[in-house]
Amino acid sequence: MKAYNIVITGVGGQGVLLTAEILGNSALKEGYDVRVSEIHGMAQRGGSVVCDVRIGKRVYAPTTPDGMADVMLGLEPIETLRYLKFASPQTLIIMNTRSVKPVSVLMGAAKDLSLDDITQIINRYYDNAILIDAMQLAMKAGSPIVQNMVMLGVLASTEHLPININTLKESIKQLVSPRYFELNMMAFELGLKAGESYSSFKH
Amino acid sequence: MTDPRTLLSKNVGESYLLLGNEAIARGAIEAGVRVVTTYPGTPSSEIADNLSRIAKEAGIYMEYSTNEIVAVEVAAGASLCGVRALSSMKHVGLNVASDALITLAYTGVRGGLVIVSADDPSCWSSQNEQDNRYYALLANLPCLEPSNSQEAKDWIVYAFDLSEKFELPVLFRTTTRVSHTLAPVELGMIHERSDHGRFVPEVKRFVMVPDFARIRHAVLIEKMKSIKELSEKSPLNKIVREGGKIGFVTSGASFNYTMEAIDILNIEASVLKIGLIHPFPEQLVKDFVKGFEEVFVVEELEPYIENAVRTSASALGLIRINGKSDGFLPRNGELSTSIVVKALAKSLGKPLPRNLVNEIPFEEIQKSLPSRPPILCPGCPHRASFYAMKKALKGAQINCTDIGCYALGVQAPLKIGDLLICMGASVGTACGMSKVQERPVVAIVGDSTFFHASIPGLINAVYNNHRTVLIVLDNYATAMTGFQPHPGTGFTGTGDRGKRVVIEEVAKGCGVELVEVVDPYDIKQTCDALKRAMEYPGPSVVVARQKCSLLAVQEKRRKGESVIPYKIVKDKCTNCLACVKVLGCPAIYLSNDMVMIDADTCTGCSVCAQVCPYKAIEISRMNQDESV
């Protein structure tokens, strides 16, 4: 079995690492070998974050080779584009449409990219793209901080992932602090439901 | 985050997903480590951080030492009394510790002593990407390099045994991609060891005056000869794949990329993985390369293995060895599967796999994106200090900055930072600059950096009367690396109350005559103090003290107190964007071209309210009170 590669991107503070750890732990539970790459330190301060989850019978490297991502899970639109080199036209792109503006844009020092510009690029090169307003669903669950769980739910719904939904739920329970478990699970379920409406991506 | 208590699990044979650093911590527990010391630094921090949380339960003495050389000395002291000890640091930390390490190789140790160096190829969070395998050569000490979490765990146990058997400190080198990768680890048995030792004097061995040092150097060389024999047969150095006419010699993270590249390009090849990288297994390598026409050495940074392979193969006649010297791989930056695939395809004349010839113009797309560098957090007191510096000193000064969150001040709009070298260098370089040119010179250090490496520089400024201003940004934590405590916090690594060392008292004790302490959130007070310091004819110190905003918010939430954000008063705001343009606080943003403050991320520091020329920023609750 060739490694199944998930590339998760976002902004420091959005929960990229937690999402990756949930996927990694779930893969281990299902008997796979797994590698999850993290970059700590500088990346935590509102910077750009990328994290790989690689699942297979035997995995060596922690990072995905260029063009070999099976899924790109983008928690933020600009950060989804920033790491497109890991995707090929066959890659499934799941992107949150809610942007987090870089300070350079807020200060007027850098040109912004509108969501239209971004979706145009995605649609031009990728057939399999799910664009989702994770913020809206996260607010429905109760807090903007669970956008990552909404996105994980959407990924789980696609049946693209070689991991059982119940295993993911177990890992969420294990890794999320008990105080926020309900909130996270609610967001995950809302993501699942939203993802199911994109039935065309089911195999 | 993995629960640190997982590292104490008695479930031998169970597998857990652990970071390389967590695996090292677990390995140390299995080996019966009893003393753990560190100075935090990415990518090494999680080793000691995890152990700090479980140290008491595990019967381990753990401390955050003031710097890396002290950390190694503390661990060595324990080891010389027969207790197993570990000291972990980032690669540049080993520069600081090297003075102790190199002579420790002569004296040797008693209880196993392992020094972990986490290197950072590609400078993910470092000021350089030095290759610390050369410390193994320089000190002539054994060095191990794991390629994944399982090896990290298993080989730490091996390292302790090796250290104790040969009575030498053992270096354990990882890189970011091993330290910060989660991978399955099957747990082994925990061996209990005594936390109590005894020092047996042996003057000729431990007192390194020249006469004894000469003898001990010879002893070290003999010990390393024996370890070299062991290296030739060690299970850590092994052929993991056989076949074909091409041979690969590799180690650590590079081994992973090599294995995947061979699969992707569908090459028939043999792979020798070196785990015990010093002393180098010359004979093993010689026997391995003998059968091949062509050998590829895959390693990151310097041609350490390549040079050793060339030496081993020199007697064998014509074998083509591909490495750094012929440009097969770069000598800078970390490797990846893609880099190795591309280099190999080029070298072997093979076509690149389809996915690597991507028809999407991602480079062009990437160039069109606004950059998102790491920035100072909302409400960061450093932002306030930097703003005050700009306002009070009007940009006349040279800013020698240092290692820590405040290095991020170099970004727009604050742009504070003209020079950054290494821990504590701000103070020394400021002294030199002040002697040979007219512009005032400021040295900027954090609280932890002050204790780590700034005090000798400060004493130098006093002793030699350098006209420098040292600004200590005291936020009560070693924030950049994960909020570890330091002498100025008054708390120890395991959460006990210790004696607090007060920065301004240290400065006064060093002989500084003008020492001021300010709250950076009070812009006027900070500006006034900075002006006085700048006008002072000798060295001066300004301590800007305010808790890290992340910690402050966390504490308030824990106590159930609310964080009261500021807000824009629409009637007064002229949308002049002064707040946005001079502070660059991520809590302030534009919505439909109007300035807004994000109530969720604003920490209520009040700095923007002090900056606003139209008094159009107010605390939220004040407004509510008025309306009642």
Please describe the structure with a list of short key phrases separated by commas or semicolons.
heterodimer, A: 203 residues, alpha/beta, Pyruvate-ferredoxin Oxidoreductase, domain 3, six-stranded mixed sheet, 8 helices, 6 strands, 40% helix, B: 628 residues, Rossmann fold, 4 domains, seven-stranded mixed sheet, five-stranded mixed sheet, 23 helices, 17% strand, globular, disordered C terminus
Instruction: Determine the structural class of chain B based on helices, strands and strand pairing.
Output: alpha/beta
Largest sheet of chain A: 6 strands, mixed
Q: Quaternary status of these chains?
A: heterodimer
Can you list the strand order of the major beta sheet of chain B? Answer: 3-2-4-5-7-6-12
Task: Please tell me about this protein's structure.
The complex is a heterodimer of chains A (203) and B (628). With 203 residues, chain A is α/β, with parallel strands linked by helices. Chain A has one domain: Pyruvate-ferredoxin Oxidoreductase, domain 3, CATH 3.40.920. Helix content of chain A is 40%, strand content 17%. Chain A has a 6-stranded mixed beta sheet, with helices on both faces. In chain A, α2 links the parallel β4 and β5. Chain A starts with a strand and ends in a 7-residue tail after the last helix. The mean pLDDT of chain A is 91. Chain B is built from 23 helices and 23 strands. In chain B, α4 links the parallel β4 (85-90) and β5. Chain B is 40% helix and 17% strand. Chain B has 4 domains: 4-233, Thiamin diphosphate (ThDP)-binding fold, Pyr/PP domains (Rossmann fold); 238-356, Rossmann fold; 381-553, Rossmann fold; 562-627, Alpha-Beta Plaits. By secondary structure, chain B is α/β, with parallel strands linked by helices. In chain B, the strands form 6 sheets. A 7-stranded mixed beta sheet of chain B has the order 3-2-4-5-7-6-12, with helices on both faces. In chain B, strands 9-11-10-13-14 form a 5-stranded mixed beta sheet, sandwiched between helices. In chain B, strands 15-16-17-19-18 form a 5-stranded parallel beta sheet, sandwiched between helices. Classes of the chains: A alpha/beta (203), B alpha/beta (628). At the A-B interface, α1, β2, α2 and α3 of A face β1, β8, α10, α13 and α14 of B. β2 of chain A pairs antiparallel with β8 of chain B, so a sheet runs across the interface.
